[in-house]
Amino acid sequence: MSLDYPSVKPHDRLQAALAEDLDAVGAMIRDRMASEHAPRIPEVTAHLVEAGGKRLRPMLTLAAARLCRYDGPYHVHLAATVEFIHTATLLHDDVVDGSEQRRGRPAANLLWDNKSSVLVGDYLFARSFQLMTETGRLDVLKVLSNASAVIAEGEVLQLTAAQNLSTTEEIYLQVVRGKTAALFSAATKVGGMIADAPAEVVQALYTYGDALGVSFQIADDILDFAGDATKTGKNVGDDFRERKLTLPLIKAIAAGGDVDREFWVRTIEKGKQRDGDLEQALHLLDQHDALDRAREDALAWSDVAKQALRSAPKGDLTDMLHDLADYVVSRLN
Amino acid sequence: MSLDYPSVKPHDRLQAALAEDLDAVGAMIRDRMASEHAPRIPEVTAHLVEAGGKRLRPMLTLAAARLCRYDGPYHVHLAATVEFIHTATLLHDDVVDGSEQRRGRPAANLLWDNKSSVLVGDYLFARSFQLMTETGRLDVLKVLSNASAVIAEGEVLQLTAAQNLSTTEEIYLQVVRGKTAALFSAATKVGGMIADAPAEVVQALYTYGDALGVSFQIADDILDFAGDATKTGKNVGDDFRERKLTLPLIKAIAAGGDVDREFWVRTIEKGKQRDGDLEQALHLLDQHDALDRAREDALAWSDVAKQALRSAPKGDLTDMLHDLADYVVSRLN
Q1: Do A152 and B126 touch (CB under 8 A)?
Q2: Using an 8 Å Cβ cutoff, are B212 and B325 in contact?
Q3: Residues of A with CB below 8 A from B94's CB?
Q4: Cβ contact (<8 Å) for A130 and B122?
Q5: Lowest mean pLDDT among A1-5, A90-94, A328-332
Q6: Cα–Cα dist B249/B303, whole Å
């Protein structure tokens, strides 16, 4: 985190700088989530879309296009596409995880049912591809269909890696790419592509989005153990209770001896948790410096993101993206 | 059913005529369902794909392309795309319906879990769009993304229309388009498009696929009440027990008086079914000629399909598609 870090969050500065574009994205989302025959579709979608969310992903697309001096209309289609894909994955995730809350409201799968969440997610996914075809850009379709495949692959991998103590940092990174980084990097990349930016700029935007996403997710996984519940809105230890092998746990397990291992086998692999186990897990994380070492990784990825921006055109939006890479890890201070 | 109806089923004749292309489609499906990181994906997909299924949809694409004298490689991509979309919807349908069997095997959601079915379906859907981009044809992407949206919309509509006695024949048709006809018509249309067939031929192929799909689904819904369980592999009355408002029921309900209505409210709307209700439903269907009238509709759609083929190039494959339209309703004799 740089010393001259401005007091207004970079996310809010991006929102202000992109206000007009974001309004256009909002209008397009409302227009395209409509369904002539099935009113259930806009009901479910609106429940999620209107709950807000940070609109981070569409902002990345808009910022990337604008900092490359794009002045056509299609960055709006692509930003709406990215938000539709994100919303579709949230709907399906909530079914997969059996979630009860999303964005501070009851999850759609509880308000309606799992069926609606699955099918409305499918509808939004199809709609996102319709939107993309309107841009007339096959190269963009390729990037976003690849990202969609990586997302689904990462989720399946997470499913099979859960509770598996032999999960490596490499597998964790694959899962994180699927959960977060694949859509971040596709979002920034297609912004550059629609602006016909030079190949090295497009590559830089991709690398920025990918590294930002990885950094963001590692920070999230650290905060699950070390966060202030009043700020994160999550309970400390949720991932431990759900037996998810996130980076801090993977580091602690790898560093621990046989006695530790018995504890992890019982609590994570077999899921036989009892009172005091979270405290013991936190103790082991501390003993092996696992949270600090994960924090170093998050900072390193944030640096990769910032470095990548050196190959992008200079300007206010580029500065805000730079500060955003600082901001996602500043939560760890 | 024409008098000179050949003894070999048109489906089997198509399969023989397209054998080489179908092998290429099979190879492409096996290749593209692979996942570098998540072996669960090909496991689940193979369970479904290798159980066979009739491969009707990819055959429609191959036949349409070939009868338009296409000699490029991309009809194989499109046929594999269509099969992937179909497989993805089957995986999601089984979650939505809580199915226990699919293609004579335990449904994937039981062998693995609902989570895997949702996520592997998403993966196949993304893969299908990747495959399409390889054809370099945005117009084809538009048709298949539209079809995907109609499919999801139709499924949501079926969800909300279920148990609703005010479901009209118009809504039923929308549901049928989503369940069956949208992918049939997209399958035949993109076959013509990839061959650069004239617009009126592409339209004829679309109309054929749509009408074939509607006819096929109406026939299925009739057989649910009138079929021979040993041939259909389904129990008579499944739709009635699941309170699905299919065409025969919609016709019987519309024709019935207030006394009938009490019966339908209790059995369909409230779902309070007891012994003898299926027999009473069959009696009411008979009293109002509902099965015969639905059969007339199926025959009329089959005629629409055959008429459409008059605008298509003549040849053996066109003849087989013609006979296929007869065959789907011949099951009702």
Answers
A1: yes
A2: yes
A3: none
A4: no
A5: A1-5
A6: 23
Distance CA B241, CA A223 (A): 50
Question: Residue length, chain A?
Answer: 333
Q: Do A153 and B123 touch (CB under 8 A)?
A: yes
Query: What is the DSSP-derived secondary structure letter of residue A311?
Result: G
Looking at residue B106, what DSSP letter applies?
E
* CATH code of residue B138: 1.10.600.10
Phi-psi region at A198: left, alpha or beta (left = phi > 0; alpha = psi -120 to 50)? beta
Contact state of A122 with B148 under an 8 Å Cβ cutoff:
yes
- Residue A35 to residue B156, Cβ atoms within 8 A: yes
> Residue A257 CB: number of other CB atoms within 10 A?
7
Name, in order, each residue with C-beta under 8 angstroms of A49's C-beta and a sequence gap of 6 or more.
Answer: A29, A30, A33, A83, A87
Q: Which residues contact B151 (CB under 8 A, 6 or more apart)?
A: A122, A126, B85, B89, B178, B179, B182, B183
Q: Using 50, 70 and 90 to split pLDDT, how confident is the model at B109?
A: low
Is position B134 within any domain? yes
Give the burial class of B2: count Cβ atoms within 10 A of its Cβ; 0-12 exposed, 13-18 middle, 19 or more buried: exposed
Domain around A195? 10-330
Total number of domains in chain A: 1
Residues of chain B found within 8 Å of residue A149, distances taken between Cβ atoms: 123, 126-127, 130
- Residue A121 structure tokens: 């997610």
Enter the ipTM: 0.89
Residues 6+ apart with CB under 8 A from B97: none
Which amino acid belongs to residue B7?
S
Q: State how far the Cα of A98 lies from the Cα of B186, in Å rounded to an integer.
A: 34
Give the whole-angstrom CA distance, residue A50 versus residue A26. Answer: 10
- 3-class SS at A102? strand
B94 → chain A, closest CA residue: A115
Q: Which of A99, A129, A155, A193 to mutate to test the interface with B (most CBs of B within 10 A)?
A: A129
Q: Tell me: the pLDDT tens digits for A78-116?
A: 999 999 999 999 889 878 777 666 656 666 666 667 788
**Cβ atoms of residues B187 and B297 within 8 Å:** no
Write the CA distances from A206 to A30, A190, A322, B302, integer angstroms.
Answer: 28, 9, 14, 51
Residue A173 lies in a domain: yes
- Which residues lie closer than 8 Å to B147 by C-beta, 6 or more apart? B85, B182, B183, B185, B186
Quickly count: other Cβ atoms within 10 Å of residue A330's Cβ: 16
CA B234 to chain A, closest CA, distance in angstroms equals 23
Angle formed by the axes of helices B316-330 and B56-67, to 10°? 150
Q: What pLDDT digit, counting tens, does each position of B193-240 carry?
A: 999 999 999 999 999 999 999 999 999 999 999 877 666 666 788 889
Beta-ladder partners of B102: B105
Q: In this predicted structure, what is the pLDDT of residue B277?
A: 95
Q: Kindly state whether residue B4 falls inside one of the protein's structural domains.
A: no
**How far away is chain B from the Cα of A295, in angstroms, using its nearest Cα?**
26
Q: Is residue A135 part of a domain?
A: yes
Q: How many CB atoms lie within 10 A of CB A34?
A: 13
Residue among B187, B186, B160 nearest B175 (CA): B160
The DSSP line for A196-261 is T--HHHHHHHHHHHHHHHHHHHHHHHHHHHH--HHHHSS-TTHHHHTT---HHHHHHHHH--HHHH
Sort out which chain B residues have CB atoms less than 8 A from A115's CB and list them.
95-96, 159
